């Protein structure tokens, strides 16, 4: 209660950055890597591999939520669709 409001806001922003955006961006690399690796020798079905690539692209676009609020809806989309 006695904390400085600027410090509280900085901690909230750090929490948002590490939990939402960082997860999303770090998820893009393995998703794209697995999808491309499975697509080339046809180890994965084409729809599954392309879904992974679209999800990886959405993950990278969700990084824009740091500067523009309308991109924030992509964070839960990437997190929950990535689990599926």
Q: How are the elements arranged and paired?
A:
Elements: H1 5-39, H2 46-61, H3 74-83
Protein described:
The protein has 84 residues and is mainly alpha-helical. Helix content is 73%, strand content 0%. It has three helices and no strands. Helix 1 runs antiparallel to helix 2 (46-61), helix 1 (5-39) crosses helix 3 (74-83) and helix 2 (46-61) packs antiparallel against helix 3 (74-83). The model has no long low-confidence stretch (mean pLDDT 89).
Poorly predicted sequence stretches spanning 5 or more consecutive residues: none
Broad structural category: mainly alpha
Count of alpha and pi helical runs: 3
Distance between the termini: 40 Å
Strand percentage lies at under 5%
The arrangement of helices and strands along the chain is HHH
* Rg over CA atoms: 16 Å
What is the percent of helical residues? over 70%
Largest sheet data: none
User: What's the total count of β strands?
Assistant: 0
**Global morphology:** elongated
Determine the mean pLDDT.
Answer: 89
Task: Summarize it.
With 84 residues, the chain is an all-alpha fold. It has helices at 5-39, 46-61, 74-83.
